[in-house]
Structures are given as structure tokens and as C-alpha cells.
Amino acid sequence: MTLPFASACLLLMLLMMQPAQAADYRIDPARSHADFGVKLFWLSQISGRFEEIDGDVTLSALHDTAIVDARITVDSIHMGSDRVRRWVLAPEFFDASRFPSIHFVSEPISLDMLEKGGDLDGTLTLRGVTKPARFEVLPSHCPLASPQQCVISVRGTIQRSDFGMSGHRTAISDQVQLGMMISLDYPKR
Fold first, then answer.
1. Which H or E element spans position 160?
2. Considering only Cβ atoms within 10 Å of each terminal Cβ, which end of the chain, N or C, has fewer?
């Protein structure tokens, strides 16, 4: 084994033994949001927008994959009707007083997926229930060297009954459409 090769192997081993680092990027809450929609009587749509998303994107030691850790503040939801907003925050829907946030943690994803798009697997915690979830990352231009220009679009469908929202089954569809627009920034240090 040559000395440069042995040095490179030793350096690689040391890098792999480094403790987990702080987030490389943060989700910019001022420029990010999440939308949801659910069918009412299979004819019209109830929809809303969560205005507060925060979290982190942490790169692997080799900077080839990332983990997304995002939290949505439930009572940040804006809707067209105050009456419907109160209902979706109530115990039979999001139960915001007991469960003030929705939390998603992705499996490691390749940075290449940010450009090309693809499946985003992870765990979603909603109303205190954690389940595997799969979303779709839409293709986007995401220059991590300039994270302020990086906007990640994600969409998917969950079953509300999987998270204990089983009321009004005859009036409201079990499928909930979710979409997120996540803008990145450097973390505050």
C-alpha cells in the first residue's frame, strides 16, 4: 500500500468517525408553506395553507445524501372560512391543542433527486401517530451553493384514517392531498 493511498484511507476513516454535524441548511419559514386538500361530498374541495414550516436539511459526511426534518405548525393554517378553520383545528380533525405540529423526517435522499425528482420516503407524525409516508419530489433547480435559490416542491397523498381522523366518513374523503414548497437557507450559527 502506498503512503498517499494509506493517508487517504486514514482520512476517510476519520471523516466517517466524526460526530453528526449540525444542519447544513434550514428550511426558511418565511418562504415555505404546505397546502392540503380533502374532498367534501366528492364534489367540492376543502383546502388550506399552513404558513409555518421550519426544520433542517442535513447532508451526509460525504455530501451525497441529505435528510429532511420538517415541522409544520398546525394552527398556522389559513382557510377561506373561519368556521371551517375552527373545525379542522378541532379534536375530530387535526386536534391542534393536543398535537400542535406535524412532523416529517425523510430517509436519506440523494442530492441528485433534487434536480431530477423522485420518491421521498420517510416517517410522518400527525396527531401523535407516526407512519411511513411516501411523497414525490418534483424536479427543480436547486443550487445548494446558493440555498436561497433552492425551492423544493413535494406532493403526496395520505389516508386521514391512518392518523385517527375517522369522523364524517360519509361526507369527507379519506384521502388528503398534501403539497409543500420548501425554500432553503443557511442555518443561523
1. none
2. C
- Residue 125 in contact with residue 110, Cβ under 8 Å? no
pLDDT for 178: 92
34 or 44, which is more confident? 34
Structural contact between residues 117 and 138, judged by C-beta atoms closer than 8 angstroms: yes
Cβ of 119: how many Cβ atoms within 10 Å?
Answer: 12
What is the rounded CA–CA span in Å between residue 114 and residue 112? 5
Read off the amino acid at residue 147: P
* Cell 391543542 -> residue: 97
Cα dist. 145→142, 148, 186 in Å? 9, 9, 10
In the numeric block, which cell numbers belong to residue 76?
398556522
Give the global pTM: 0.81
Residue tagged 367534501 (cell numbers): 40
Which cell is 20 given?
453528526
CA–CA dist 92, 87 (Å, integer): 8
Mean model confidence pLDDT for the chain: 83
Residue type, 16: M
- Where do the domains of the chain lie? 22-185
